[in-house]
Amino acid sequence: MRALLQRVLEAKVVVEGETTGEIQHGILVFLGFAKEDTFEKGQKLIDKILKYRFFDDEQGKMGWNIAQAKGSLLLVSQFTLMANTQKGLRPDFGPAMPPAEAKILYTQLVTYAQSQFPHVQTGIFAADMKVHLVNDGPVTFNLEIE
């Protein structure tokens, strides 16, 4: 399971001209699931994201998590994160979880995230999403749970 985290000043997801999720200051999270991923792995990843010291504290160091920074979370499913890009000139999506299973896991993880943190917005699973963001820093981290 992979998550690409971007600290943002603002971000939103637009599907067919409608905004489906929007945050100001916070973290935009792109989530990718591998075939062997589980809800338990996802819980660990969400917990890590919520505790990850990603924001500047009073000393200007990355010492605050999202709650301490009074930020929001925008979760977006992105199966392309699981592509194998080591060989050839075309991504191999074989490692990615099949869409039907991934949708269930994504929905479960969104519900879990919302139960752990009050400011969670989302994209729409498997939709043609247009993601708008203003990256803060830029600060971007790749987290993996095995």
Automatic annotation (TrEMBL):
Keywords: Cytoplasm, Hydrolase, RNA-binding, tRNA-binding. Gene3D superfamilies: D-tyrosyl-tRNA(Tyr) deacylase (3.50.80.10). Pfam families: Tyr_Deacylase. Its main location: cytoplasm. Its EC number is 3.1.1.96, 3.1.1.-. It comes from the Bacteria. It is an enzyme of class 3 (hydrolase). One of its GO terms (cellular component) is cytoplasm. A motif (Gly-cisPro motif, important for rejection of L-amino acids) lies at residues 137-138. It catalyses: a D-aminoacyl-tRNA + H2O = a tRNA + a D-alpha-amino acid + H(+); glycyl-tRNA(Ala) + H2O = tRNA(Ala) + glycine + H(+). It is found in: Cytoplasm. GO terms for biological process: D-amino acid catabolic process. GO terms for molecular function: D-tyrosyl-tRNA(Tyr) deacylase activity; Gly-tRNA(Ala) deacylase activity; Ser(Gly)-tRNA(Ala) hydrolase activity; tRNA binding. An aminoacyl-tRNA editing enzyme that deacylates mischarged D-aminoacyl-tRNAs. Also deacylates mischarged glycyl-tRNA(Ala), protecting cells against glycine mischarging by AlaRS. Acts via tRNA-based rather than protein-based catalysis; rejects L-amino acids rather than detecting D-amino acids in the active site. By recycling D-aminoacyl-tRNA to D-amino acids and free tRNA molecules, this enzyme counteracts the toxicity associated with the formation of D-aminoacyl-tRNA entities in vivo and helps enforce protein L-homochirality. PANTHER family: D-AMINOACYL-TRNA DEACYLASE 1 (PTHR10472:SF5), D-TYROSYL-TRNA TYR DEACYLASE (PTHR10472). Homodimer. Belongs to the DTD family. A Gly-cisPro motif from one monomer fits into the active site of the other monomer to allow specific chiral rejection of L-amino acids. This is D-aminoacyl-tRNA deacylase. It comes from Acinetobacter celticus.
